[in-house]
Specification:
The chain has 114 residues and is α/β, with parallel strands linked by helices. The chain has a single domain, classed as Response regulator (Rossmann fold, 3-Layer(aba) Sandwich). The protein is built from three helices and five strands; from the N terminus they run E-H-E-E-H-E-E-H. A five-stranded parallel beta sheet has the order 2-1-3-4-5, sandwiched between helices. The protein is globular. The two termini are 14 Å apart. This is Response regulatory domain-containing protein. InterPro entries: CheY-like_superfamily, Sig_transdc_resp-reg_receiver. Keywords: Phosphoprotein.
Amino acid sequence: MPPPFRIAVVESDDLMRQLLLRWLDDAGYRATEAKAAGLAGQSFDLVLADVAGPRSVAMLVRSVRTAHAGPLILLSARFGRGSGATLGLQGVSAALAKPLARDELLQAVRAALP
């Protein structure tokens, strides 16, 4: 079981957010729902954030970076599988295409955390 890392889940879709929180909680992480603008003043080991599409990646990363310097995993239904296009952005540990599998998510989380 992993140490109790704190993970912020920034996801606007209720069903997807609940699924992500459940997967992370079941794997032993302390997952909390959050808003990108609401990260300031909170301490998280990792931020998992949904992005509307490739054009809004830079804006989301800048918003998250104002409050969180640690690892960031992006999720989007608009990413192509294996594209890796967003990985050139500073601090983006992984970019996962939706729909995604539980194992795919947990593998990316484990790789992003120390």
